[in-house]
Design goal:
single chain
């Protein structure tokens, strides 16, 4: 794991998920590497052809197979970035938390992990650039500590068992 490798995973709908903004931000910060695991639509491929060929932007045509398909990239990356225009947790974001990747997210992601997150003020290329610079500035021991705590938070709050237990509690509260 290195503090300068960040993963983006997502399905179709690149623009609504902020992939264009991520590409623009990483093009301006060549020291930090972006690994893209997403199908990129033709328009985005055409419009960002130059940026996608930069040495710090790595596009792996969609290979999302949780949890093992991207294991080598997941083990390299320290962070997962989500800059979608919609609120809520994406499945890809939660899958990366399972692997202990530290989230770089806006409040709209609704993770509520406090100091474990690298906050992004808004989903704009300038805010993304500021957030990735903050993430890259963290020390490796700090990243490793956050990674352990993120994985533990995933198990406690977002795992299938946590969902089932919460669902049972909700049903029980309605029945009583």
């Amino acid at each position: 794991m290195t503090g300068k490798l960040i993963l983006y995973q997502g399905g179709r709908g690149n623009i609504q998920k902020g992939l264009d903004l991520l590409i623009e931000a990483f093009a301006a910060e060549p020291v930090v590497h972006l690994y893209i695991d997403s199908p990129i639509e033709f328009e985005a491929l055409s419009n960002y052809k130059t940026q996608l060929s930069l040495s710090n932007i790595h596009y792996y045509e969609w290979q999302s197979r949780f949890p093992g398909g991207m294991r080598s990239i997941l083990e390299k990356c320290a962070f997962v970035l989500h800059a979608g225009m919609n609120s809520g947790q994406s499945t890809a974001l939660l899958g990366a938390l399972y692997h202990g990747l530290v989230p770089v997210v806006t409040r709209d992601a609704n993770l509520n992990l406090g100091a474990l997150e690298v906050p992004m003020e808004e989903a704009t290329s300038s805010a993304i650039l500021a957030a990735i610079r903050s993430a890259a500035a963290l020390s490796l021991p700090e990243i490793a500590n956050r990674a352990l705590l993120v994985a533990a938070a995933f198990r406690e709050r977002f795992s299938p068992d946590a969902y089932r237990n919460g669902f049972r509690r909700a049903i029980a509260s309605l029945v009583l």
